[in-house]
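dumping this here so i dont lose it
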């Protein structure tokens, strides 16, 4: 496998870094801006986020078709500029209704740019470099988000409306700059005319792919496991010091930055990607089992178990990501990368909607029995990934 990156991929990496620096700032300040500066209640912010998630879920695949028809370059730039507009509009939000409207349009733009970016990667990177490119972009994303969230500390310390507004406008500017990096100096991936390309319904008729998307959505619940489940479990059910939560989160980010590219090796082809999905399920199930054990320990043993669970979790997380990238690229027919990348994103979107409720009400609230049940969910999903993905096409062939 060649290890050199093309100039186009390098430019995409630079664009991603710029974009995620702004996203990191926004991620850190959004909740406080909306509640303290705008005056929305926590419940209103939650409703807005839920509406946005549902809008993004519904529009993800159709907007992927748009990327195929317009061409991923043009679609990616258009959706980035729309995000710049919605981020700027957020500075003018003064009511719950206006916030929900802006959040919904933002979700449309975000879903559109995700599908277009996936199609752009598929068009720019050589076949044996697509997954590696996604892995590199994930590493860069983690770095950009971390730096952006660190810089946001200044905004949070000042805690004034005008400073929040400057932060939001700075994020909007990063979308414009990212669009410029994509628009100028990057090779154009040709659009696929409707008359000569696959049907716009190809992805939603591909039963094999949709079952995989569902399984991948289950595995993607690892996000809520790390961000919600483990912190709540540490704080409410173990005797571990609460500072260990920060250690575990830093460990997760550092591992992704250092190891994501290495762990992604071998997932460029369907068989290797399917095996990665299976291993991800096994490791995420092991994570839940180890967390269940920490309910009955104390002191250094508890801390050791929590670190072991975090390590198993982050390796499972990286395998799930790499396997999903490989499978989504490999199963997409020519001319349908946009809609398949959009459909693939639906799995994580569903997982993000369901996971917080499942993790908090089952795993954390029920204690060790809940963790074992959650482990079984991850295990079954992982074991079925190779079964579904490698199933002969005779019964799962999409209609084109």
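and the seq i came up w/
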């Amino acid at each position: 496998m060649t290890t050199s990156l093309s100039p186009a991929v390098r430019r995409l990496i630079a664009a991603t870094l710029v974009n995620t620096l702004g996203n990191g700032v926004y991620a850190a300040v959004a909740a406080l801006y909306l509640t303290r500066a705008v005056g929305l209640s926590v419940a209103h912010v939650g409703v807005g986020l839920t509406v946005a998630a549902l809008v993004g879920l519904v529009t993800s695949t159709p907007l992927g078709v748009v990327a195929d028809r317009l061409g991923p370059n043009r679609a990616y730039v258009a959706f980035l500029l729309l995000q710049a507009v919605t981020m700027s509009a957020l500075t003018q939000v003064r009511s719950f209704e206006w916030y929900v409207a802006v959040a919904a349009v933002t979700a449309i733009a975000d879903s559109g740019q995700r599908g277009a970016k996936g199609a752009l990667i598929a068009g720019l990177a050589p076949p044996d470099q697509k997954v590696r490119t996604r892995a590199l972009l994930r590493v860069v994303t983690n770095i950009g988000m971390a730096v952006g969230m660190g810089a946001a500390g200044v905004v949070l310390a000042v805690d004034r409306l005008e400073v929040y507004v400057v932060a939001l406008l700075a994020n909007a500017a990063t979308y414009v700059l990212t669009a410029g990096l994509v628009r100028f100096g990057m090779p154009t991936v040709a659009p696929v005319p409707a008359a000569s390309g696959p049907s716009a319904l190809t992805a939603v008729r591909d039963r094999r792919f949709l079952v995989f998307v569902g399984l991948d959505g289950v595995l993607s619940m690892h996000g809520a496991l790390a961000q919600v489940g483990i912190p709540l479990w540490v704080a409410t059910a173990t005797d571990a010091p609460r500072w260990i939560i920060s250690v575990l989160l830093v460990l997760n980010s550092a591992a992704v930055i250092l190891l994501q590219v290495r762990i992604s090796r071998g997932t460029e082809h369907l068989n290797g990607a399917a095996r990665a999905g299976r291993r991800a399920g096994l490791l995420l199930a092991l994570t839940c089992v180890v967390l269940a054990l920490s309910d009955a320990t104390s002191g250094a043993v508890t801390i050791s178990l929590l670190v072991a669970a975090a390590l198993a979790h982050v390796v499972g997380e990286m395998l799930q990501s790499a396997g999903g990238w490989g499978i989504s690229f490999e199963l997409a027919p020519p001319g349908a990368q946009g809609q398949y990348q959009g459909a693939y994103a639906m799995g994580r979107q569903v997982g993000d909607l369901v996971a917080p409720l499942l993790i908090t009400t089952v795993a954390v609230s029920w204690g060790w029995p809940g963790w074992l049940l959650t482990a079984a969910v991850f295990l079954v999903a992982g074991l079925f990934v190779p079964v579904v993905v490698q199933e002969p096409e005779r019964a799962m062939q999409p209609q084109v």
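DSSP finds 14 helices and no strands in the chain.
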